[in-house]
Amino acid sequence: MIVLLAALLALSFLATGWIRRYCLANGIVDIPNQRSSHSRIVARGGGVGFSAIFLLAIVVAGIAGVVAGRAASGLAGGGIIVALTGWVDDRKGLTQITRIMLHLAAAAWAVAWIGPVPAILSGSPIWMWVSQIAAVLAVAWMINLYNFMDGTDGIAGVEAVSVAGASGFLCLLAGLPAAGEVYWILAVVVTGFLLWNWPPAKIFMGDAGSGFLGFIFAALALWASVGNFRLFLPCVILLSVFWVDATTTLLRRMVQGEKWYEAHNSHAYQKIARRKGHLPVALGVLIVNAAVLAPAAWLAWTNPRIAPLVALSVSVILACLALTVRDRSTTPRSVSR
Asked: Contact, 38 vs 335, CB < 8 A?
């Protein structure tokens, strides 16, 4: 397994370098504007490399029987839809409705193959349907919120590597070695990209990478929860930095009557980046995930009776911090990304 992970790391690193050269040569770049957190032209679309490598690994694992066929089909099928959607959007641009419909299709595919999702309130047919619909919407939201949170150097990569590493460990403890190994494969292939994306970034992952990561994390959490429902809240806790910031920002913009569906730079992490720079944001996410959320997820796993309280406490604390950061009156300074 160690040799395989090392090979995947090297392959991801080399693939990202090749994609960077291709993007620069073909004008697939991110040009700074008034909403940007960077001030220079940088290649984008680098996420297509680790996405392709991860998908290939899943297909091979499915054929070899290491990963159950239904799980492999759900991960690979939906992942291909999201990655291709992101790559086309990075190159040519897609309408919002087109992206949303494709994301919903990928989410529905994953839920159909990986499910059934346990009914939250009862085992009656109506609540089973409600659970399936809620799962599809949750996966689709995760695709988009991960994209929203990919706005500064290294942040999306650091989140992916740290969350996947911890989630893989929890899956092993839960008796789900296949899911644990898939999480670690994800962590390794994203690390290969992160070496290029570390501040100051030489390439951005683009929608081909950020949306893909959002989908994969949602699908893997679904797979793990179906295997052992006690893993659901720990998975939610580990992803709290991203989903809390994105969700509170969306709700705040809706309450204030802003055009919430348009691009903006009002996330808490973006405000911190304008004041402190990109490196402190990436390191901050890593520290919070490792020192706070990983122990909290462990506590929720080992003490399922208090898991809802742990998840709620983490969410409330992070939401208050995010709202406090956004509400502070700051004078943005130029930050080179």
From this structure: yes
How many domains does one find in the chain? 1
Q: What is the pLDDT of residues 211-262, one digit of tens each?
A: 999 999 999 999 999 889 899 999 999 999 999 998 988 888 778 777 666 6
**37 contacts: CB under 8 Å, gap ≥ 6:** 151, 152, 265, 270, 273, 274, 278, 335, 337
Distance between first and last Cα of the chain: 36
Q: Please check whether residue 294 lies inside any domain of the structure.
A: yes
Give every CB contact of residue 301 below 8 A, 6+ residues apart in sequence.
Answer: 170, 173, 174, 230, 231, 234, 307
Question: How many C-beta neighbours within 10 Å does residue 209 have?
Answer: 33
Q: Which residues form the domain of 277?
A: 2-30+40-327
Q: pLDDT tens, 86-98?
A: 999 888 888 889 9
For residue 319, tell me if it sits in a domain: yes
**Residues sharing a CB contact under 8 Å with residue 105, sequence separation 6 or more, in sequence order:** 81
Strand locations in 179-258 (E):
203-204
Distances (CA, A) of 227 to 66, 107, 116, 127, 180: 15, 19, 11, 20, 12
Q: Give the residue ranges of DSSP H helices in 239-293.
A: 240-255, 268-276, 278-288
Using a cut of 0.85, tell me whether the model's pTM lies above it.
yes
Of 319, 289, 326, nearest to 160 by C-alpha is: 289
For residue 312, being part of any structural domain is answered with yes
Alpha-carbon distance of 302 to 306, in angstroms, equals 9
> How far apart are alpha carbons 270 and 259 in whole angstroms?
18
The type of residue at 11 is L
Length of the chain: 337
Is 337 within the bounds of a domain?
no
